[in-house]
């Protein structure tokens, strides 16, 4: 049982050592989503010669731009393609590049929605500037808030807020097509990272996707059974609540 405000990434070492103390250091593979992955955690797993299969941050995709554009994908089920890639920095790790049709459609729609919101917001700001004299700093802050509320498409816009001859704010913007090209190439793609050797790309993907079973279980408890939030403070009551949640889920 951890404190409610503790970040997930700080719990891994304690979880691993607890599991190994109870059941021994078997030939298990630690499968972690991106919320648990940090360099310190990977160093800890490597130091104990443990095997791992982890999700990586979206930013890692940029390292595989050439492979993303390639044609040597392998279809392992309808709407899902994978390919094994060697680590760009030459280490013994293996990277699994994955591309999902469903995920592509979701991210494409998300980018389009945020692009529309930003453009509509900029049009309103420009209209306000044309109606009456606006302070440059105030307009810049409005633009910053707009981009902060729609970060998924913020990189698409190159926005200039200048001072006109009369001292009023004047706003212009253009779209960065290089950003759009990368978004279209990377939509639906994600990268897995592992030190497990001798497994196929399909085996590694299927091992990682088991996390969705755990996520489904949590989703059922949080939504269908409405078993959160947990207001208990004492550890024995927290444990009792978890037991009730588990029994309800099993039933």
Measured as a percent range, the helix fraction is 40-55%
Low-confidence stretches: none
What is the 3D shape?
Answer: globular
Number of strands: 8
The strand order across the widest sheet is 1-2-8-5-4-3
In whole angstroms, how far apart are the ends? Answer: 23 Å
Secondary-structure class: alpha+beta
Instruction: Work out the strand percent.
Output: 15-25%
Q: Residue-averaged pLDDT, rounded? A: 90
Task: Describe the SSE topology.
Blueprint: H1 12-23, E1 29-32, H2 39-47, E2 51-55, H3 65-69, E3 74-77, E4 80-86, E5 94-100, H4 101-131, H5 136-149, E6 157-163, E7 169-175, H6 177-186, E8 189-194, H7 201-208, H8 211-224, H9 235-250
Parallel strand pairs: 1-2
Antiparallel strand pairs: 2-8, 3-4, 4-5, 5-8, 6-7
Question: How would you characterize the overall build of this protein?
Answer:
There is one protein chain. By secondary structure, the chain is α+β, with helices and mostly antiparallel strands. It has 9 helices and 8 strands. It has helices at residues 12-23, 39-47, 65-69, 101-131, 136-149, 177-186, 201-208, 211-224, 235-250, and strands at 29-32, 51-55, 74-77, 80-86, 94-100, 157-163, 169-175, 189-194. The protein has a 6-stranded mixed β-sheet with strand order 1-2-8-5-4-3, sandwiched between helices. It has a two-stranded antiparallel sheet with strand order 6-7. It is globular, with a radius of gyration of 24 Å. The model has no long low-confidence stretch (mean pLDDT 90).
């Amino acid at each position: 049982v951890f404190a409610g405000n503790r970040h997930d990434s700080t719990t891994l070492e304690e979880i691993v050592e607890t599991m190994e103390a109870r059941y021994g250091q078997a030939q298990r593979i630690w499968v972690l989503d991106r919320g648990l992955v940090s360099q310190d955690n990977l160093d800890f797993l490597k130091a104990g010669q443990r095997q791992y299969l982890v999700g990586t941050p979206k930013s890692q995709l940029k390292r595989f731009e050439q492979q993303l554009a390639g044609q040597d994908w392998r279809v392992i089920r309808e709407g899902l393609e994978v390919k094994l890639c060697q680590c760009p920095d030459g280490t013994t790790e293996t990277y699994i590049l994955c591309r999902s049709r469903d995920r592509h459609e979701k991210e494409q729609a998300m980018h389009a929605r945020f692009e529309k919101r930003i453009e509509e917001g900029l049009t309103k700001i420009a209209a306000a500037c044309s109606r009456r004299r606006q302070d440059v700093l105030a307009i810049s802050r409005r633009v910053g808030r707009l981009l902060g509320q729609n970060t998924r498409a913020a990189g698409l816009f190159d926005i200039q807020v200048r001072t006109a001859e009369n001292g009023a704010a004047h706003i212009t913007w253009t779209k960065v097509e290089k950003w759009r090209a990368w978004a279209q190439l990377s939509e639906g793609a994600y990268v897995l990272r592992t030190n497990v050797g001798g497994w196929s790309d399909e085996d590694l993907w299927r091992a990682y996707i088991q996390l969705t079973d755990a996520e489904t279980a949590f989703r059922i408890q949080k939504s269908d059974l409405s078993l959160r939030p947990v207001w208990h403070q004492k550890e024995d009551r927290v444990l009792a609540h978890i037991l009730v949640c588990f029994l309800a889920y099993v039933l």
